[in-house]
Every structure is written in structure tokens, then in C-alpha cells.
Amino acid sequence: MADQSIPQARTPEAPRGAATAQTAGTAGATGKRMSRRRLLGTAGATGLVLGAAGGAAVGHAAAPAGATPLTSVGAGRAMFHGKHQPGITEGLQARGHLVAFDLAPGAGRKEAAALLRRWSDTARRLMAGEPSAQDDTGVALDAGPSSLTLTFGFGHSFFARTGLEGQRPAALDPLPDFSSDRLDKTRSNGDLWVQIGADDALVAFHALRAVQKDAGSAARVRWQMNGFNRSPGATAHPMTTRNLMGQVDGTRNPKPSESDFDRRIFVPEKGEPAWMANGSYVVVRRIRMLLDDWERLPLEEQENVIGRRKSDGAPLSGGTETSEMDLEKTDAEGNLVVPFNAHARITRPDQNGGAAMLRRPFSYHDGIDADGVPDAGLLFVCWQADPLRGFVPVQRKLDRGDALTPFVRHEASGLFAVPGGAAEGEYVGQRLLEG
């Protein structure tokens, strides 16, 4: 997770009844169903900027007299068209769905192009607060965009299925095996990948249903995972989020303000292959946390495993969350203050030849298993210009001696090529599928 700010606490939401009465009256006057976008315009909100990384801009018309304004959570809007796809640099979202699809038997390049065209149109509409073009379910009819993002990518197998092997990037070669992997192949990889994120659960679910319905006979769901993060405004001030182990997670994430951010996270405009210009590669891992074992550890041992204080995320060498970690500092007995196998030490870019990735994950909880143990953990999502220089060297080092390894289990994995953003009038992946 990035060192990204959770948006400031929101103003209290207006009573639902007032909004319902207003919109019902407007709909009745015209005799037509009100779209989400029209509802958003009627509700109104002052312009604001949300998201520490992506800067999702919001600007709406002034509300008519007596209209009930949307809260800032509902009014947040990310842009579909742009240099990069949405859902990469925006701030963490409260709700997420990760879905992989396989093309149906007999479906190829033509069907894939038509599907990406449908998905792109649906994403553009829903991210603007409009209903989907076909058979909208109405699930999100009362809500604004709620910072909804949809992101699309291609798996290694997609290129053989569509006759585009010559366009498959070398960076998409399968990830190596790691000794800590316990991967379920049925929940790994896939021809196509979709990431959905929003700050409202119904808005996110609405987008999920629209994407699944748009797939039609062209593709079928291979796997789906559902996640969550802290809700916007849940803390008194912006702060780095926590994972399900209770640890502040994401302090040293690369920041868009850094001079080498684009070089480390995005494929250059003149990179290879050409259709991946301004795109990125995403590694997705379902990492189960063995919470019962973890929670039995005394606080001091938990902090030694991570290398940071649990209370505020500061390094054990002292200071605040953002203080530089002193890897050479020792205690009175000559022992390293930050243990040599502490997770925070091993994952530092300066300990991995500069390898860096933008982590933007979701937590998950899929219930209690037959042994009474929570099936919960992290949907690890990381972005980089080249996974062989980002994810792979860091994971190899973790595999050799991370103190956190006994408390986590990698259960699913995927690697996807995520092309650059679609320009006005284009769909995502058009340069690949029609090039």
C-alpha cells in the first residue's frame, strides 16, 4: 500500500429520505427514470480534489434550491480517459473486486476486441455516474460515482488465444516458483483481468455485475476475489492504512511526486511493445494471513518480525513513521535493533538493487474454515514497469529468510499486462487488438 492519505473526515450525510423525495419529484415531473449522472447533477456538490496519488477531480453544477447534496464520498470521481488507466495511482478505495476471465471456446481476437469495447464503454459510463448502456440493474441508482475505477489487463494465455503471440511482452513471462507458494491454479492467472474499486460497496458491486454481464458469451469468469480497505473519513486525519495484522502498511510506497516514479512504475512511451506505452504490469497475489498464530505473538515479537512499531509504524531504530530506518543501529548488547530478517528491512529498495513497486492492495475475509480459522489476509496488488525488476527480486529475497513467512501463505497468483489509458473515442487495448 502506498504512503497515501486517506481522505479527510466527511461531512455528515444528509437524511436519505430528503434525497429520495427530491429525486422522485424530479423524475415524476419529466416522466422518465433519472440516470445516476442526472441525479448527481441535481444533488450537486462543490468542487473538490480527492486521492493523494491520482488526484481524482470532482466538479459539479451548483445544486438547485432545496436539493440535498451528495456527501464528498459519493461525489468523488476518477477519469476513465487519460495517459494511464484509472485504478493505479488513485488513493486506496474502500471496496474492491478482482476478477479474471478466460475467453470462451471459439472466441478469439474479434470477440476480445468487441468485449474490450463494451467494457470500456461501461467503465466510462459508470465512472461518470451514469447507468450502464444495457440492462442496468439500478443497484447504484441513488449514489454518485464514489471514486469508482475499472482497470483492464491481459494475461500470458490471452495472446495465444487471440493469435497475437508476436505482441506478447517478454515482461509477461510466467513468474518463477517460490518455495513459500501454495498456489491454487484454479484461482491464478487468466486470459483477462479486471480490477474494480470504489468508496461505496453498492457502487463497486454494480460495476462488477455490469462487467460480468458484458462478458456475455465471449468470456467466462475464471476466479473472483473481493476486498476492502478502511473507509474514507474513518480516521481523524489522513494516515497510512493498516492491514489485518494491525500493522501500518505502505509507509515506503513510491510516490508520484518522486522524480523516478514513472520510470519505475510505467512502461515508457517508446518502450516495447509499442501497444504497452504508458502501461504497467500488475502482480496479484492472494496472501492468507495466519491470524491465530500471529495474534498469539507478544507485541514485541510482532514488532521484531516487521521491524516497525505497531502503534505508529515508526522504525524500531526510532523516530516517526516516515523516519529513515537505521539498519546498523544496535542495542546495549550489540544486537541489531531492526533484526536482520525483519520484513521492513528485507523489502527496502536499497536492499534489493533499487527494486520498487507501487503496492495498492485490499484486505479480504472469506469467512471461517472448517477448523475454525479465519480465511483472511491480503489481496496483494503491485504495479511496476517490469516485474522481473520489481516484484521478482524482492519476493526471491523474502523467500530466503523473511521473518513474516511463517505467518502468511501465498495461495493464488497472477501477472497481467495493463496497457496505457484509452484516449477519447478509443477503448482499452485497441492498439493491441487493432494494430
What does this structure look like?
This protein has 435 residues and is of the alpha+beta class. 24% of the residues lie in helices and 18% in strands. Strands 3, 4, 5, 6, 7, 8, 9, 10 and 11 form a nine-stranded antiparallel beta sheet that branches. Helix 4 (109-127) packs antiparallel against helix 6 (201-215). It is globular. The chain starts with 15 loop residues before the first helix and ends with a helix.
Layout of secondary structure:
Layout: H1 16-30, H2 36-43, E1 48-50, E2 56-58, H3 72-75, E3 95-103, H4 109-127, E4 149-155, H5 156-161, E5 192-198, H6 201-215, E6 219-228, H7 261-265, E7 280-289, H8 291-295, H9 299-306, H10 343-346, E8 358-359, E9 362-368, E10 374-384, H11 391-401, E11 408-418, H12 430-433
Antiparallel strand pairs: 1-2, 3-5, 3-6, 4-5, 4-11, 7-10, 7-11, 8-10, 9-10
Helix pairs in contact: 4-6
Judged by helices, strands and strand pairing, the structural class is: alpha+beta
| Mean pLDDT figure | 87
Low-confidence stretches: 1-35, 37-67
What fraction strand?
15-25%
Sheet with most strands? 9 strands, antiparallel
Q: Write down the Rg.
A: 22 Å
SSE run: HHEEHEHEHEHEHEHHHEEEHEH
Number of strands: 11
Instruction: Report the total helices.
Output: 12
Helix % is 10-25%
User: What overall form do the CA principal axes indicate?
Assistant: globular
First-to-last CA distance: 35 Å
Subcellular location: Cell envelope
Protein name: Deferrochelatase
Biased composition (Low complexity): 17-31
Catalytic activity: heme b + 2 H(+) = protoporphyrin IX + Fe(2+)
